[in-house]
C-alpha cells in the first residue's frame, strides 16, 4: 500500500514504508498497543488489565485485556517466530487464561495498576460506561489477537480455520511510514477476523506509579484545592498514601497492615476527577479488621449525609466537577477523619 501527503503546492508526496523490525523495538509496539487499546480491534474497545503475565509454563503473555462483555483477549506480537510457533503459542496462552477465575484476573489487574484494593468489576463497568442493567460474566470466552507487520499466509489460513471452529482469532497487520521530516504514521488492517460477530499465583508486569507532584499537576482548578487539603490531612495524621498509575489510596495503618478508606482519581482517569470509598468487597475493610458488617455501612451512611457522594455500585463516589466551597471541603475532611477514627477503634483480624 502506498501513502501520500499533499504539499502546499497540492502535489502528492509519498511516505516511505519503514521496516518496524529495523527501526523500532518490539517493546515500543507493545507500548503503543497498551496505550491505544481502542485501535486494536474493529468491534469495540479493550481494557488492558495486564502486561508480560507469566503463565504456569513460565512463558509471558504480551498483553491481557477484557472486552465490554468481560471476555478475555490475549494480545500477542508475532515477532520472528515461525507461523506454526506463533499459532501454537497463542493457543497455549489461551488455554492458560481460560482457567483464570475472577479473583485471579483481579489480582493481575491490581498488580498491573499498582493498587492492591482496586475493584476490577467496578473499573470495568466505569471504563465501558455500562448501565446497572448490563450483565457481565468475566472470562466466559477467550479471544486471541495476533499483531505483526506481516501476517503470513500460513498464519492467515490457520487462524481462519480456527475461527470456523469457533475459536475467536483476530490477525492485525501494522504498517509504518515516515516522511523526510521524520513524521511517523501508522496504519493498521484486520486481515483475519472482521467481527460480525486455577493456576497458582500469577505474575504480571506493572505500570509506573505517579508521584504526588504529577498527580497535582494533572488536576483541574476544581480538583486541586480539594485534593490539596485531603493530602495535607493525610500527612498531618500519618495516614499512608499509596500511589498508583493514575491516583492514590488513603489508608489507615495497623502496624504495617494498611486498610484503604478511599481513592483519589484525576480528570483523565476512567473514574474522572473523583473520590471513591473503598470499604466493601474483596480486599476491603472487613477482610482486614475485626469488625462486623455494620461498620462500613455506618461510614457510607455518614458519607451520604454530606451530600457530596452518590452511589457507585456497592460504594460511593464524590465527583469533583465544580468548585467546592470551604464548608464542603471541611465536611469531606470531617467525614474522612471520623471514618479513620472508627476504623482505628477496631483491631486486625487474627
By DSSP, the count of extended strands is 14
The major pleated sheet works out as:
8 strands, mixed
Low-confidence segments, given as residue ranges, are: none
Distance between the termini: 65 Å
The Cα radius of gyration reads 23 Å
Any guess at the CATH architecture of the largest domain?
Answer: 3-Layer(aba) Sandwich
**Percent helix range:** 25-40%
Q: How would you state the average pLDDT, rounded?
A: 84
User: Which fold name is given in CATH as the topology of the largest domain?
Assistant: Trna Endonuclease, Chain: A, domain 1
The fraction of residues in strands falls at 25-35%
- Globular, elongated, flat, extended or rod-shaped: what is the shape? globular
What is the H-and-E element order? EEHHEEEHHHEHEEHHEEEEHEEH
Number of helices: 10
Kindly name the structural category.
Answer: alpha+beta
- Output the CATH class name of the largest domain: Alpha Beta
- The structural domain count equals 2
Model description:
The protein is α+β, with helices and mostly antiparallel strands and about 350 residues long. It has 2 domains: about 5-190, Trna Endonuclease, Chain: A, domain 1 (3-Layer(aba) Sandwich), CATH 3.40.1350; about 210-345, Aspartate Aminotransferase, domain 1 (Alpha-Beta Complex), CATH 3.90.1150. The protein is built from 10 helices and 14 strands. The chain has helices spanning about 20-25, 25-35, 85-95, 100-115, 120-125, 155-165, 210-220, 225-235, 295-305, 325-345; strands at about 5, 10-20, 45-55, 60-65, 70-75, 140-150, 170-180, 185-190, 240-245, 250-255, 255-265, 275, 310, 315-320. The strands form 2 sheets. Strands 1, 2, 3, 4, 5, 6, 7 and 8 form an 8-stranded mixed beta sheet that branches. Strands 9-10-11-12-14-13 form a 6-stranded antiparallel beta sheet. Strand 4 (about 60-65) and strand 5 form a beta hairpin. The radius of gyration is 23 Å and the shape is globular. The mean pLDDT is about 85.
Amino acid at each position: 500500500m502506498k501513502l501520500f501527503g499533499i504539499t502546499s503546492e497540492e502535489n502528492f508526496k509519498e511516505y516511505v514504508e519503514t521496516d518496524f523490525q529495523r527501526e523500532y523495538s518490539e517493546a515500543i509496539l507493545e507500548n503503543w498497543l497498551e496505550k491505544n487499546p481502542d485501535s486494536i480491534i474493529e468491534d469495540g474497545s479493550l481494557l488492558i488489565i495486564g502486561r508480560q503475565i507469566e503463565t504456569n509454563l513460565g512463558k509471558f503473555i504480551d498483553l491481557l485485556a477484557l472486552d465490554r462483555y468481560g471476555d478475555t483477549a490475549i494480545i500477542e506480537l508475532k515477532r520472528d517466530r515461525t507461523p506454526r510457533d506463533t499459532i501454537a503459542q497463542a493457543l497455549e496462552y489461551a488455554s492458560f487464561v481460560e482457567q483464570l477465575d475472577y479473583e485471579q484476573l483481579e489480582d493481575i489487574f491490581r498488580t498491573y495498576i499498582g493498587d492492591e484494593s482496586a475493584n476490577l468489576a467496578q473499573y470495568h463497568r466505569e471504563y465501558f460506561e455500562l448501565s446497572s442493567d448490563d450483565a457481565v460474566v468475566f472470562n466466559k470466552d477467550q479471544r486471541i489477537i495476533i499483531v505483526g507487520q506481516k501476517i503470513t499466509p500460513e498464519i492467515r489460513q490457520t487462524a481462519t480455520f480456527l475461527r470456523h471452529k469457533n475459536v475467536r482469532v483476530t490477525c492485525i497487520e501494522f504498517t509504518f511510514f515516515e516522511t523526510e521530516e521524520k513524521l511517523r504514521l501508522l496504519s493498521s488492517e484486520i486481515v483475519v477476523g472482521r467481527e460480525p460477530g486455577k493456576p497458582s499465583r500469577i505474575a504480571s508486569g506493572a505500570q509506573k506509579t505517579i508521584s504526588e507532584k504529577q498527580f497535582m499537576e494533572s488536576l483541574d482548578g476544581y480538583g486541586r484545592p480539594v485534593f490539596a487539603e485531603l493530602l495535607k490531612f493525610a500527612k498531618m495524621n500519618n495516614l499512608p498514601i499509596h500511589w498508583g498509575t493514575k491516583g492514590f489510596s488513603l489508608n489507615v495503618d495497623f502496624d504495617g497492615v494498611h486498610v484503604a478508606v478511599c481513592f483519589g482519581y484525576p480528570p483523565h482517569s476512567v473514574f474522572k476527577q473523583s473520590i471513591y470509598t473503598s470499604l466493601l468487597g474483596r480486599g476491603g475493610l472487613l477482610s482486614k479488621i475485626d469488625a462486623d458488617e455494620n461498620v462500613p455501612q455506618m461510614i457510607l451512611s455518614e458519607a451520604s449525609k454530606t451530600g457530596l457522594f452518590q452511589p457507585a455500585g456497592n460504594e460511593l463516589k464524590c465527583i469533583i466537577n465544580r468548585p467546592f466551597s470551604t464548608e464542603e471541603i471541611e465536611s469531606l475532611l470531617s467525614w474522612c477523619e471520623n471514618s479513620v477514627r472508627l476504623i482505628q477503634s477496631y483491631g486486625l483480624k487474627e
